């Protein structure tokens, strides 16, 4: 009898888990290597902005020259919108096309990127602007928005990675970013200048668990602010919540454990057509890996209390 009860409980847990997370064909882009996904919903279309790992990247270093864009009306079939932005768009850039995010405001699309700044040593954050979600984009200000000498919480030169921008219900825009540091700053209404000073959030266990790494993604749902990020290295995806866009943050746990095919993951979460989706990258395409990555998407449902369920990495598995 105990064995029967144990079996039934195991089956129930299994069924509940797979009812909260649905698996589609992954990776969603298979004709090139893509990484560091970010999403934007505009006019009933979901746009997917990604970094582009080059085919000839070595096995121990990134080689990324541009950012690509895709669009979809169903989160399954993706139209290639080309390469709307390259590092050469920024005359001050002297490095790779690292993680980025595009947002819409006041008839314009603003694409926040991280790349090496050859005029100020270290990685910097720039912003490009366009009248269309698919470009063409141009450098909005002619220089970096944030340079490495403006942030001092971390001593290394690549702490200004992975910008995420969120516009709250009152119209105030916030930018979070950071590698082994978590910075935030308000943006002015023009979206291309800072409003106030940059704040570094203490990386406490209460706020972020044992090891915040990089790749923050900020959004709001039912009055709660969610900060999703990569933790540890090799990376897993964790998250924290707050009732305020600037914290204090409370650590909520792991969303996606470490994956086998890539040392990094990089998250995005988006609601589209009444469903929620977790977007990330792995290294599961042929000849892929930590430096030739592939974007994946999984549909999921929040728990009744608003927490996010555990989501496991999958590839080539249908719903």
TrEMBL record:
<dbReference type="InterPro" id="IPR023296">
    <property type="entry name" value="Glyco_hydro_beta-prop_sf"/>
</dbReference>
<feature type="site" description="Important for catalytic activity, responsible for pKa modulation of the active site Glu and correct orientation of both the proton donor and substrate">
    <location>
        <position position="162"/>
    </location>
</feature>
<dbReference type="InterPro" id="IPR006710">
    <property type="entry name" value="Glyco_hydro_43"/>
</dbReference>
<keyword id="KW-0378">Hydrolase</keyword>
<dbReference type="InterPro" id="IPR052176">
    <property type="entry name" value="Glycosyl_Hydrlase_43_Enz"/>
</dbReference>
<comment type="similarity">
    <text>Belongs to the glycosyl hydrolase 43 family.</text>
</comment>
<keyword id="KW-0119">Carbohydrate metabolism</keyword>
<keyword id="KW-0858">Xylan degradation</keyword>
<feature type="active site" description="Proton acceptor">
    <location>
        <position position="36"/>
    </location>
</feature>
<dbReference type="Pfam" id="PF04616">
    <property type="entry name" value="Glyco_hydro_43"/>
</dbReference>
<keyword id="KW-0624">Polysaccharide degradation</keyword>
<keyword id="KW-0732">Signal</keyword>
<protein>
    <submittedName>
        <fullName>Glycosyl hydrolase family 43</fullName>
    </submittedName>
</protein>
<dbReference type="GO" id="GO:0004553">
    <property type="term" value="F:hydrolase activity, hydrolyzing O-glycosyl compounds"/>
</dbReference>
<keyword id="KW-0326">Glycosidase</keyword>
<feature type="signal peptide">
    <location>
        <begin position="1"/>
        <end position="24"/>
    </location>
</feature>
<feature type="active site" description="Proton donor">
    <location>
        <position position="214"/>
    </location>
</feature>
<dbReference type="GO" id="GO:0045493">
    <property type="term" value="P:xylan catabolic process"/>
</dbReference>
């Amino acid at each position: 009898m105990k064995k029967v009860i144990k079996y039934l409980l195991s089956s129930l847990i299994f069924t509940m888990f797979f009812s909260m997370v649905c698996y589609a064909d992954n990776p969603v882009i298979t004709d090139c290597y893509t990484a560091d996904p970010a999403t934007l919903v505009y006019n009933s279309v979901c746009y997917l902005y990604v970094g582009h790992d080059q085919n000839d990247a070595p096995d121990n270093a990134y080689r990324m020259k541009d950012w690509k864009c895709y669009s979809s009306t169903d989160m399954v079939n993706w139209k290639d919108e080309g390469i709307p932005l390259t590092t050469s768009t920024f005359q001050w850039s002297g490095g790779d096309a690292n993680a980025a995010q595009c947002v819409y405001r006041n008839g314009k699309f603003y694409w926040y990127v991280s790349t090496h700044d050859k005029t100020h040593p270290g990685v910097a954050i720039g912003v490009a602007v366009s009248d269309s979600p698919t470009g063409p984009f141009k450098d909005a200000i002619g220089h970096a928005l944030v340079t490495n000498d403006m942030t001092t919480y971390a001593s290394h030169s690549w702490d200004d990675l992975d910008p995420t921008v969120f516009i709250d219900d009152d119209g105030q825009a916030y930018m979070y970013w950071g590698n082994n540091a978590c910075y935030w700053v308000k943006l002015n209404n023009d979206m291309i200048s800072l409003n106030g000073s940059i704040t570094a959030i203490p990386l406490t266990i209460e706020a972020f668990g044992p090891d915040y790494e990089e790749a923050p993604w900020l959004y709001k749902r039912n009055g709660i602010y969610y900060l999703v990020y990569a933790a540890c290295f090799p990376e897993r995806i964790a998250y924290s919540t707050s009732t305020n866009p600037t914290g204090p943050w409370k650590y909520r746990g792991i969303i996606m454990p470490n994956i086998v095919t890539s040392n990094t993951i990089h998250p995005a979460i988006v609601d589209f057509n009444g469903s929620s989706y977790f977007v990330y990258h792995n290294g599961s395409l042929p000849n892929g890996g930590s430096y030739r990555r592939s974007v994946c998407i999984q549909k999921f449902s929040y728990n009744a209390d608003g927490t996010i369920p555990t989501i496991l990495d999958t590839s080539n598995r249908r719903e």
